[in-house]
Amino acid sequence: MKITLAHKPDKLPETLIVPIAQDEQYDEVLQLLASQNKLQPDALKNDFKGEQGELQIIYNADGQRIFLLGLGRTPGFAEVVKAFRSFSFKWRKKLSTHIGISFLHNNSTATTDITRRIEGAVSGCWLGTYQIARFKTDQKEEHPLHAPDAIITIGIDKAYAPFARKAAAQGLALAETQTRIFDLVNAPSNKKTPEMLGQWADTSGQTYGYKVQVLHKDAIVKLGLHALLAVNSGSEDPPVFIIMEYKPDGIAAEKLKRVGLVGKGVTFDTGGLSIKPSTNMHFMKSDMGGAAAVFGTLEAAAKLQLPVHLIGIVPATDNSVDAKAVKPSDVINSYSGKTIEIIDTDAEGRLILSDGIAYMLRHFQPEILIDLATLTGSAVRTFGYHAAALFSNNDSLANSLLEAGHRVGERAWRLPIWDIYKEDLKSDVADIRNYSGRPIAGAIGAAKFLEFFTENHPRWAHFDIAGVAFNDTEFSGQKSATGYGVRLLIEFLKSVDTVY
Ligand code: BES
Ligand code: ZN
Ligand code: ZN
User: Fold this and answer.
1) pLDDT confidence of 139, banded at 50, 70, 90?
2) Ligand 1 atom index nearest CA of 276
3) pLDDT in tens, 439-470
4) Is the CB of 344 under 6 A from ligand 1?
5) Taking 80 as the threshold, does the pLDDT of residue 107 lie above it?
6) Which residues surround ligand 3, an ion (CB under 5 A)?
7) Is the CB of 273 under 6 A from ligand 1?
8) How would you classify residue 216: left for phi > 0, otherwise alpha for psi between -120 and 50, otherwise beta?
9) For residue 500, with 0-12 CB atoms within 10 Å meaning exposed, 13-18 middle and 19 or more buried, which class applies?
10) What sign for the dihedral angle of Cα 412, 418, 419, 421?
11) pTM tops 0.85, yes or no
């Protein structure tokens, strides 16, 4: 898809979308629109209030079809994306391959507001093209914006042109990566073995210019990533350990903040011998949502050439049932050298993450360490499907992450990691146990387990995204991927230098 700019209303295509918010510009914008199209402003104002998602179609004398799209009261970035995504999705059968989006505004509008809206609009349009039906044999029709000659023309005052161009390009770049991440998370586990995740990363790295190293079983054994191997022991498919590294062209690495991201890559979680009930087990194909967020962030950061030195690590395996599977009460070793008593084999995410974190610290010494994982049912019970649980030992880092999430509409809320909770993880026989054995404070317990492997790193944050990675949406009948984390982390990385 191509993006072009137009500075005059008569240069815009026949299918035109005009986003309108219920803000102080509502009157002025509708007045302008009415005069441009020879309409009665009062009639227009009567029928269209600009509520979030509201839609009014106008056919003007020049044969243009104009969609007035409501953004609601003082819309943030997320509301703009939502309105456009929903519109693009619902109207896909009736859209053309060339659409215009006209941003009417007055001179008092801040550039950042306009560019945010442009980015959100383009992102939303592209996200609305996403189709979940990848494995259906009767080929669905393509969204018009997927056509090779598809164009979005941004109608905007000339003064904003350079910002508008950049914002639109960024909106598209991020949305493209997000839909690739949707595909990964929505894929069933037989279509995304650990090996295939490695291939995905490899292709992404080659396409967008970052380094990817995929370690296979032999190397994993040799290195001694014992916790990953333990989780994999009941599995037919071997594990992989994926290491990604991005640096922007032409800037010395020493001048950049070094940020390490670790993502849980469990391609299917049966629970292992501590097997899960079958009712909702199919959702456990999404247990690599943390890995997906790390993949998406590396890919998007490389596309946008963000000024940061980014390292991504994804330990990947499924968690299966087998005679060779690890058993409750087994004591396993780990890459860190610390021993772990397995109380519950369904607490597998923290095991593979502990190896990921230990490897990250030993080999890359990141200044900031962030892990993401669909880690506990407890996080879902605490925040439902609307917010991730955030844990951090650093207020500056935590606040930057929370604020970034707030700006892009990916909610997170901080929970404590007081040391009293560590008592629950004491083991009689090993250095630590992977579960307290009591179904309370589950998300905090998991965070405390991870903390044990962070070697007192001064800037560590952990996102439990179990509730937010895979959700009910208006775009699918069943739960589906949200891409949670990619937007938040990219937004965070843009101002990562302010973290102390
Ligand atoms: N993958 C699950 C967590 C999960 C639950 C993700 C619901 C998405 C939705 C994780 O591996 C798990 O099974 N956690 C257990 C840990 C417990 C046995 C200590 C849990 O939270 O019940
Ligand atoms: Zn589990
Ligand atoms: Zn899991």
Assistant:
1) confident
2) 13
3) 999 999 999 999 999 999 999 999 999 999 99
4) yes
5) no
6) 266, 269, 287, 349
7) no
8) beta
9) exposed
10) negative
11) yes
Q: What is the largest CA-CA distance in the chain?
A: 81
In the structure, what pLDDT confidence band is assigned to residue 111 with cuts at 50, 70 and 90?
confident
Between the CA of 330 and the centroid of ligand 1 the distance, in Å, is 19
Closest ligand 1 atom number to CA of residue 469: 8
Atom of ligand 1 nearest to the CA of 271: 13
What pLDDT score was predicted for residue 222?
98
pLDDT more than 90, % of the chain: 93
Query: Residue 40 Cα, ligand 3 centroid: separation in angstroms?
Result: 58
- Cβ 349 under 6 angstroms from ligand 1: yes
Closest ligand (CA of 264): 3
Tokens of 233: 């022991």
Phi and psi at 409, nearest 5°, equal 80, 25
- Please answer whether residues 465 and 372 qualify as being in contact, where contact means their C-beta atoms are separated by less than 8 angstroms: yes
Residue 273 region, left (φ>0) first, then alpha (ψ -120 to 50), else beta?
Answer: alpha
| Ligand positioned closest to the Cα atom of 282 | 1
Residue 224 DSSP SS3: coil
How much is the pLDDT for 112?
85
- Which residues neighbour 7 within 8 Å (Cβ) at sequence distance 6 or greater? 155, 156, 157, 158, 161
How many Cα atoms are found within 13 Å in the side-chain-facing hemisphere of 460? 21
Ligand number, closest to the Cα atom of 267: 3
* Tens-place pLDDT, residues 283-329: 999 999 999 999 999 999 999 999 999 999 999 999 999 999 999 99
Which among 192, 247, 350, 487 is annotated as catalytic? 350
Annotated catalytic residue: which of 166, 191, 257, 276? 276
Q: Mean of the pLDDT values across residues 55-66?
A: 94
